[in-house]
UniProtKB/TrEMBL annotation:
Keywords: Membrane, Transmembrane, Transmembrane helix. The lineage of its organism: Bacteria, Pseudomonadati, Pseudomonadota, Alphaproteobacteria, Hyphomicrobiales. The keyword rRNA-binding does not apply. The chain crosses the membrane at residues 6-25, 32-52, 58-86, 119-140, 184-206, 218-240, 246-267, 279-304. This is DUF2232 domain-containing protein. It comes from Siculibacillus lacustris. The keyword Transmembrane applies.
Length: 321
């Protein structure tokens, strides 16, 4: 990684900002095929921030924000800042921080990098803050939103030739439950999307030889034990009505994603050396994609790992030749 600024690096940063803006705006068309592009909207910012330094990563983020504001308006630009332009450069900056492992020793001592688990926690709280601010900006109200969505859904069902009165009566509870879960689902899903973009950006930059941070065993990433306490407390408060319940739902969603990622790391570590490891991991990923209960079980494993240290019972992977 280098923070040296030159005309080519400026052009790269501006180009990355343009790419990020285009990917973010791809969802405007409403096509499901645009969703993967939208998910990768933070990737160009991560590549620049990892490979050319934080300042150019911020420049790319500012470029993307200005372009989206010009093309789609201020609300879309604010959404870009909260979801993409702020979390990605900040996470890349923290991952690029390093210090000598022994400050009193000579310069050639080993380097201690900023812990990845702390970066994950910072990222979670940035996304929590962004979700809360975004919800306040749009005036999110679960009751009113449920009423509007249910009315639209009833109209669609009533217009169907195969609909019945029973179908119409079942809509409102389902809509209410779905809307109530939105404050949980959005921060959880967007945290995992951001982590995916971070990982992809690091892989791309590493292939070019510009990534300063050495490769690490991501399956060993851990978070502090207080994160589990915060998750349990926010989950309990999430059942309350009103603003407290909504904010607690956002916190619970983001911390659920944190412990889910840790739990997946535990699963990767404990299956090392198993004869059917690929099949076991593929089954776990498939179940998580299809059902919510396996994801909750894996998050529980991640939460308990801070207290029972499941991964310390397994030897580390062999060093790369």
């Amino acid at each position: 990684m280098t923070s040296r600024i030159s005309l080519p690096s400026l052009a790269i940063a501006i180009g990355a900002g343009l790419a990020s803006a285009l990917l973010f705006a791809s969802l405007v068309g409403g096509s499901m095929f645009a969703l993967p592009l939208f998910v990768l909207s933070a990737l160009p910012l991560g590549i620049v921030a990892f490979g050319w330094g934080t300042r150019l990563g911020v420049l790319a983020a500012v470029t993307a924000t200005l372009l989206v504001a010009f093309a789609l308006g201020l609300p879309a630009a604010i959404a870009l800042v909260l979801a993409v332009a702020l979390p990605m450069p900040l996470a890349c900056h923290l991952l690029g921080l390093a210090r000598p492992a022994d400050p009193a020793a000579p310069v050639a001592t080993p380097v201690e990098w900023y812990p990845t688990g702390r970066v994950l926690m910072v990222l979670a709280f940035v996304i929590i803050g962004g979700t809360v601010v975004g919800g306040l900006a749009i005036g999110f109200d679960p009751i009113e939103t449920s009423r509007e969505v249910a009315a639209a859904a009833r109209g669609m069902v009533a217009g169907s030739a195969t609909s019945s009165a029973e179908d119409v009566s079942q809509i409102e509870p389902l809509v209410h439950a779905t809307v109530r879960l939105m404050p949980v689902f959005f921060p959880a899903s967007w945290l995992m999307v951001t982590v995916l973009d971070l990982w992809l950006a690091a892989k791309v930059v590493a292939r070019s030889g510009r990534l300063a941070r050495p490769a690490e065993d991501l399956a060993q990433v851990a978070v502090p034990a207080w994160a589990g306490v915060a998750f349990a407390a926010s989950l309990a408060l999430a059942f309350l009505d009103g603003p407290i319940g909504l904010v607690a739902s956002v916190i619970a969603g983001a911390l659920f994603a944190v412990h889910f990622l840790v739990g997946m790391g535990v699963l990767h570590v404990v299956t090392r050396g198993a004869d059917m490891r690929i099949l076991l991991l593929a089954t776990a990923y498939g179940l998580v994609l299809l059902f919510s209960i396996p994801a909750a079980a894996i998050a529980l494993v991640g939460l308990l790992d801070a207290h029972f240290a499941f991964r310390k019972r397994r030897p580390p992977p062999p060093a790369a030749p």
